Amino acid sequence: MSLVRGSSSLRRFSVQKWQSLSTASFSRPMSSKVTMDDEHDEHDEELVPLAGTKTYENLREAFAKKAMAMARYEYYAQKADVEGLTHAAQVLRGISNSAKEQAFGHMEFLDEGDEEETEASSTDMNIESCLAHERKEFEEKYPTWAEVAYEENLSDVGTWMETLRNTSFNNMRTLQKLQDAVEELYKEAEEEDAMSRGQNGRTNEGN
C-alpha cells in the first residue's frame, strides 16, 4: 500500500498502529540490575564543586539538547495534528514532555553550579532574570542576527529575526507588569506578616 503524507490511506493505516503504542513506553527508563551507584557505594567520595568541571559542561550541553528536543518533538506533534495523525501526535508530545522533565533535571544541577542561564530563585528574581535575557535579545542578539541574515541575502530569515525582536520587546513589557504585580504581592505579604508579629507580641505582653 502506498502511503502519502496527509492522505486518507495514511490516516487509516496509522490508527491501529499508533493505538498500540503507549506514550509511557517512550519515557520509561530501561531497568538494569547493575547501576553505577552500586559501583560507587564502596567509595565515600567527598562532593566537589560542580562549576568548572567537565561534568558541568556536559550538563550544559545536555540541557541545551533536551530543550531543543522538547521543542522539536512538539513541533513534529503539531505537524502530525495537521495530517490528522492524532495518535502519532500524542506519542510525540509524550516524548516532548519526557525531554522537558529531563531538561528540568539538568537545570537543577546547573542551578547548584550557579549556571547563569538556568539559575532559579524566588519568583521575583526569576522574573528579573527573564527580563535581563529578553532585554539582551532585544538590544543585542536579534539585531545582530537580522543584520547578518540580510548581509547574506537571507531576507526571510532577517525579517523573522526582526519579528522575534518585536516579540522580545512585548515580552519585556509583559514581564515588567508581572514584576510590579509580584513585588506588590510580596510587599503586602510582608506587611501582613509584620502586623501578625505585632499582634502576637502584644498578646504575649498581656499574658
From TrEMBL:
<dbReference type="GO" id="GO:0046872">
    <property type="term" value="F:metal ion binding"/>
</dbReference>
<dbReference type="Pfam" id="PF02915">
    <property type="entry name" value="Rubrerythrin"/>
</dbReference>
<dbReference type="InterPro" id="IPR009040">
    <property type="entry name" value="Ferritin-like_diiron"/>
</dbReference>
<dbReference type="InterPro" id="IPR009078">
    <property type="entry name" value="Ferritin-like_SF"/>
</dbReference>
<dbReference type="InterPro" id="IPR052753">
    <property type="entry name" value="Rbr2/Nigerythrin"/>
</dbReference>
<protein>
    <recommendedName>
        <fullName>Ferritin-like diiron domain-containing protein</fullName>
    </recommendedName>
</protein>
<feature type="domain" description="Ferritin-like diiron">
    <location>
        <begin position="49"/>
        <end position="186"/>
    </location>
</feature>
<feature type="region of interest" description="Disordered">
    <location>
        <begin position="187"/>
        <end position="207"/>
    </location>
</feature>
<dbReference type="InterPro" id="IPR003251">
    <property type="entry name" value="Rr_diiron-bd_dom"/>
</dbReference>
<dbReference type="InterPro" id="IPR012347">
    <property type="entry name" value="Ferritin-like"/>
</dbReference>
<feature type="compositionally biased region" description="Polar residues">
    <location>
        <begin position="197"/>
        <end position="207"/>
    </location>
</feature>
<dbReference type="GO" id="GO:0016491">
    <property type="term" value="F:oxidoreductase activity"/>
</dbReference>
